[in-house]
Amino acid sequence: MYIDQEGAFFYDSPQNKCFPSNHIVKLDKISANVSIYLADYLYVQNLDLHRWNLTNGDLGLTYSGCVWESCPTPFQSILYNTSTLLNPAESSNSTFGLDFRNTNSDILSIASLNSTMQLGGVKEEYEQLITWLPQPSITPDYHYFMIQNLQFCGSQLFSNYSTTWQVMIDTGASCLSLPGEMYDAFAARFVNGTEITSLANLPSFTFELCTETKTETFYLPLGIFAVDYDAGEGAMGPLTFNYKGSESEMKLCILRGSDIEQGGTFRSPPPVITFGNLALQSLYFASNFATITEGFANKLTVTERSYYDNYRVNPSCAAQPICVGDQTYFPNSNTCKDPNCDKYFFVHLDKESHSCVFNQSAVGFGLIFIGFIMFLEVVSFLLEQYTGYALAERSRRPFGGSYTPLGNAFKIDIITLYLSKGVAIVVDFFIHLSQRLGNIGTNRNRRTRLPRDDNAEIGLRAEDMVL
User: What percent of the chain has pLDDT over 70?
Assistant: First the structure.
């Protein structure tokens, strides 16, 4: 469907013939007279004169950026007129629903030949099952919502970045698009090249939608993203699988988006997850322009959900490795990495235990070093005690034999006193010994220099006599 505000002519044949007509558009719950043009060709006499910026092309489902009744988009106008024709006495219903179906009957119960859109309401079978969520913004441009706990094969794809993430519904795209780090975590858990007999055998993404009253789990089976190997010409990435043992491989329509981190810093705003048309095949999607809310309902049966929850036995799910020793698990690569022992002194990596162990040659040095530090601490304490005691003793009779409070206030037990006094004597001995050794060296230097000075003086006098 196309709309144009400049009056370009639409033709269904190159003979410059236009066929405007009234058609009855039959919708679920609604029937309305809508004037449309059916065209196979677009003919414009002068491309330079036509203002293509006013051509909206395919009718979009986006918001208008203002109160929807005051400046509606072309799609909102159709929605407004359709619901008004249905119930003239009531205010227009600003709700629409999308029920995309997959034509491949191999994808369990969601396969169907007919995809439908509901204008002015939602599909009756999902009306009581829809979980409604407010938009993150009160003035959105597109259909956004927040999801929690996105997982694949039991692995949390959000890692430590956040507990929630923003998702955009894009009916102009086909694939599922994930931020770079989330895509890498997903690819690490998918066994590439798996041979399957049914698209329903592939595992599924799961995510949660939380409201004030409930938390519900939703599913995105990988089978709905299966496309021919040549589709997209390499833009979809390297993930493939063999379907029903055929020689030709199939690809997954899952794209790697922008990275969350760039150059060690986080992108602002962070890249969003994008649900294209294929992602909506396992979800019923609805939106209300007036309340600025988005709604979702599960299409999968209880049996199908139970199968996807049992991911541990799925051959397409790579098992999470068991980390040993000091190894750390990295979900982005689904690997256990050894610790960086080079960052620490006196240790090295033991390849058998995958742990940091002390170097045997450094153990003795370390014990001696620690013992030396402890010895210095004890000596310092004892010297402090003896110094305090000596000062207290000297302050007992400073003037004519009278005692002062300082001498009476300092108390020390007899054992500490003798130990500290002994340490002080030893320290004092070594201080005096070093001074004596220093004096002996100084005297020797003086004695060796003295004859040279006398000779210099005698030579000088002889020279004076010659002159």
Answer: 67
Pair (305, 395) in one structural domain: no
Do residues 296 and 283 touch, judged by C-beta distance below 8 A? yes
* Domain count across the chain: 3
> In angstroms, rounded to a whole number, what is the distance separating the alpha carbons of residues 349 and 362?
15
Sign of CA dihedral 323, 327, 330, 334: negative
Residue 55 domain-assigned? Answer: no
Which residue is listed with tokens 């220093």?
438
CA distance 308 to 153: 9
List the CATH number of the domain containing 272. Answer: 2.40.70.10
Residue-level pLDDT at 294? 95
Shared domain for 343 and 267, answered yes or no, is no
Distance (Å, rounded) from C-alpha 366 to C-alpha 452? 51
287 and 347 assigned to the same domain: no
- Domain residues for the domain of 223 are 95-313
d(CA 93, CA 69): 11
pLDDT in tens, 197-234: 888 889 999 999 998 888 999 999 998 898 877 765 54
Cis (ω within 30 of 0) for the bond into 269? yes
Do 95 and 121 contact (CB within 8 A), yes or no? yes
The answer to whether the beta carbons of residues 415 and 385 sit under 8 Å apart is: no
Q: Per-residue pLDDT tens for 254-285?
A: 999 999 988 888 888 899 999 998 999 999 99
Q: Indicate the burial class of 160 (C-beta count within 10 angstroms; 0-12, 13-18, 19 or more).
A: exposed
- Please, what's the largest Cα pairwise distance for the chain? 141
Same domain, 405 and 438: yes
Angle subtended at Cα 145 by Cα 139 and Cα 151, rounded to the nearest 5 degrees: 160
Q: SS3 for 109?
A: helix
Do 237 and 142 lie in one domain? The reply is yes
Q: What is the DSSP letter of 453?
A: H
Q: Which amino acid is residue 26, in one-letter code?
A: K
Alpha-carbon span 51 to 42, nearest angstrom: 14
Specify the pairing of strand 30-37 against strand 131-134: unpaired
User: For the chain, what is the mean pLDDT?
Assistant: 75
Question: What are the residues whose beta carbons fall under 8 Å from the beta carbon of 397, sequence distance 6 or more?
Answer: 403
288 and 202 in a common domain: yes
